[in-house]
Amino acid sequence: MLKHIPKLPSLLTATFSEWRRDRPPLLAAGIAYYAFFSIIPVLVVAAAIGSLFFGQAAVDGQLTSVLNSLFGEKVAGVIQSALVSTYSQSSNIVVAVAAVLLLLGASYVFVQLRNALNIVWKVKRREKALKGFVEARLVSLVMVVGIAVLLLAWIIASIAFSALYTLAGISSSFLAELSNFAAVFIVSTMLFAMTYKLLPSVRLTWEDVWLGSMVTAFLFTTGWYVLGFYLSRISIASLYGAAGSMVALLMWLYLSAHIFVFGAVFTKVFASRHGSRSKARKP
């Protein structure tokens, strides 16, 4: 994979040209819409899983830190309030309901992601409706489990770094942010690789998706910090009133969806030029 690093400028140029032709605003809007309705159930289930290992207080503290970095204090406060409200209503039942909502919501999110990837790959599907429905839901279930594992790994890494800094007597906020950046980059690289490999209706190798996943993860993590910094310093409420926090959340999801689509196009360009789908590799 490292041998392809010098080719990044030409790959990015070709990706940008093709990305503009794939109607990215339309694809990103659909992904952001479905993701908006599944984000709270995802966080509830992730917090419930993490609390089994580390306790509710530790997980809540870590989620607060992550949400503040992602969305800024105002938007994070709205999401935290929704989570606290959910927890206060009877934990076992709520977590079970959240899990069902997660599966239902995630199935639509991943169907939309798959449709977007198939548009990028110019796939024309000719399969029976029932078979396609069942296949899409099974793939969605696998992806949900994968995301839960990666979120748990993220929480474990964050708590481990915090514990190490405490034991070593290190209080540097720069080191804390750097380790958090690294954790997000690694986890999101794995998530994007899994998505780009498993969701589209084309055969790809892991070699095809790793470089694109790393590029996407870097853009995603950098965009996360830039947008979080921006949202923490502007007053969206003055423009949109009470809906300001939800608008900020939609902005973040929309930006993330654009990055996802761009990474998918990059993966296609790479696979077509240097991967398993290049003419030089075909018998």
Keywords:
81% helix; globular; mainly alpha; 283 residues; single chain
What would you say this structure looks like, in words?
The chain has 283 residues and is mainly α. It has one domain (2-271). The chain is 81% helix and 0% strand. The protein contains 11 helices and no strands. It has helices spanning 8-21, 24-36, 39-54, 56-71, 73-87, 91-120, 129-168, 173-198, 206-231, 237-240, 244-273. Helix 3 (39-54) runs antiparallel to helix 4 (56-71), helix 4 packs antiparallel against helix 5 and helix 4 (56-71) packs across helix 9 (206-231). The longest helix is centred in the middle third of the chain and has 40 residues, at 129-168. It is globular and about 55 Å long. 34% of the residues are buried.
Summarize the structure.
The chain is mostly helical and 283 residues long.
Structural class: mainly alpha
Number of domains: 1
Distance between the termini: 22 Å
- Characterize the biggest β-sheet: none
* Share in β-strands: under 5%
Counting DSSP E segments of at least 2 residues, the number of strands comes to: 0
Order of helices and strands: HHHHHHHHHHH
Radius of gyration: 20 Å
Number of helices: 11
Helix content: over 70%
Q: What would you call the quaternary organization?
A: single chain
Question: Which blocks of ≥5 consecutive residues have pLDDT under 50?
Answer: none
Global shape: globular
Mean pLDDT, nearest integer? 76
Write the layout of secondary structure elements.
Layout: H1 8-21, H2 24-36, H3 39-54, H4 56-71, H5 73-87, H6 91-120, H7 129-168, H8 173-198, H9 206-231, H10 237-240, H11 244-273
